[in-house]
Amino acid sequence: MSFFSAVDVITTKRDGDVLSDGAIAWILDAYVRGEVAEEQMSSLLMAIYFNGLSVDELNCWTDRMIESGERLDLSGLSRPTVDKHSTGGVGDKISLVLAPLVASCGAAVPQLSGRGLGHTGGTLDKLESIPGWRAFLSNDEVRHQLDTIGAVICAAGQGLAPVDRKLYSLRDVTGTVESIPLISSSIMSKKIAEGTHALVLDVKVGRGAFIKTVERARELATTMVALGASHGVATVAQLTSMDAPLGRAVGNALEVTEAVDVLKGNGPSDVRELTVELARIMLQLVDIHVDPASKLDDGSAYEVYRQMIQAQGGDPDAQLPTATFREEVISSADGIVESIDALSVGVASWRLGAGRARKEDPVSAAAGVVCLVREGEAITKGQPLFELHADDAAHLQAGGDAIANAVVVGERPVNAKPLLMERITN
Ligand code: URA
């Protein structure tokens, strides 16, 4: 490989010029080897934050991230593979229902997932509330489970796009997380390396999402869909509203219980609606013509869920952990629920113990929030709005403070924004 100077690479991007493939390949490799200093990569990330990456630069950057590690080979499976990625929301337990649901329709779903950070929960944290359930599988175990059961939700191996971990930690402390090319390459490099044939992106927009406006969400979705297509992964993005929490339960075990309700054909209508719609898009991408709603209603999706949990050591019939302390938050007014702020509910759940501030922090399986009212509902003064769950009485106070103003009560019925917004295809 040719040698480049880190300062030249930084100043090229700082001045708004285009980086050559060679320069991108060199700087990412040299950064992994420790030859490019953290402060130099920080400067380059900031230059990218301000000046962006062209389509060619972004494709090359993403390729080099993928090539920094291993690629899972899922080509020998008997079923087509299709995955889903969500940009993260409050009460987002969709993966727990969607993976077994799509598997029950005949596809294989390799959901290599992460843990939660901040106010949004992580799928692995939720499943770890099931006694015995194991997040870490070998690549052979992943392939075997996909072939036999059709669904795997497990920890993404350290070998997938390892440079992303190093870059993400640096972005986190240098104010460069919110860059569309950096977010897109980070998410898509891991999904492409995972080996899926097709991918649906659930891009969350609103108060409880890290993207607040539809314009930004559209830009992110369009960039990721194009990256998928240029890497041979058929990708569709669905923009969905994240102003209010999804469903009623927020918190690890609480969300597993709600997901199981949906798998049994019950549960909150918004969780079912979004899961079924994402399943339809996933099945279309792999040319399977089955109505997913019927698989929730006839018990097939729940049966696949049970097998998926058992295959990873979990007991689907086990009693999930419950909180020692519970407290209700009461309405101080009569009226109609105009809005429920997902961000306040997410922060409350985190303060109650369900989330973590740093990667190494433990989480409580039992802590969280149950939303007792929905947007548009008529309520009376003194009616309970939320139930707070915690293992530690001191956390109840912190959670209560965070959620105190989460509900806006008005006088007239409001038209809630639709959950399903735009769809972006290539
Ligand atoms: N999730 C990721 O994996 N990467 C980002 O950059 C942002 C969200």
3D architecture notes:
With 426 residues, the protein is an alpha/beta fold. The chain is 44% helix and 16% strand. It folds into 3 domains: 47 residues, Transferase, Pyrimidine Nucleoside Phosphorylase, Chain C (Transferase, Pyrimidine Nucleoside Phosphorylase, Chain A, domain 3), CATH 1.20.970.10; 237 residues, Nucleoside phosphorylase/phosphoribosyltransferase catalytic domain (Pyrimidine Nucleoside Phosphorylase, Chain A, domain 2, 3-Layer(aba) Sandwich); 86 residues, Alpha-Beta Complex (Aldehyde Oxidoreductase, domain 3), CATH 3.90.1170.30. Helix 9 packs across helix 10 and helix 15 packs antiparallel against helix 16. The strands form 4 sheets. It has a 4-stranded mixed β-sheet, sandwiched between helices. A 4-stranded antiparallel β-sheet has the order 6-9-11-7. It is built from 16 helices and 13 strands. The structure holds uracil. Uracil (URA) binds next to helix 9.
The number of distinct helices, counting runs of at least 4 residues, comes to 16
* Strand arrangement in the largest pleated sheet: 1-4-5-13
CATH-defined architecture of the largest domain: 3-Layer(aba) Sandwich
Give the number of DSSP strands.
13
Rounded mean pLDDT is 96
Structure class: alpha/beta
* The CATH homologous superfamily of the largest domain: Nucleoside phosphorylase/phosphoribosyltransferase catalytic domain
CATH class of the largest domain: Alpha Beta
Determine the fraction of residues in helical runs and give it as a percent range: 40-55%
Q: Termini, distance in Å?
A: 34 Å
- The CATH topology of the largest domain is what? Pyrimidine Nucleoside Phosphorylase, Chain A, domain 2
- Rg, rounded, reads 22 Å
Small molecules held by this entry = uracil
Number of domains: 3
Q: Which strand-content bin applies to the residues? A: 15-25%
- Topology as a string of helices (H) and strands (E): HHHHEHEHHEHHEHEEHHHHEEHEEEHEE
Spans of at least 5 consecutive residues whose pLDDT stays below 50 are: none
Q: Major sheet: size, sense and barrel closure? A: 4 strands, mixed
Envelope shape = globular
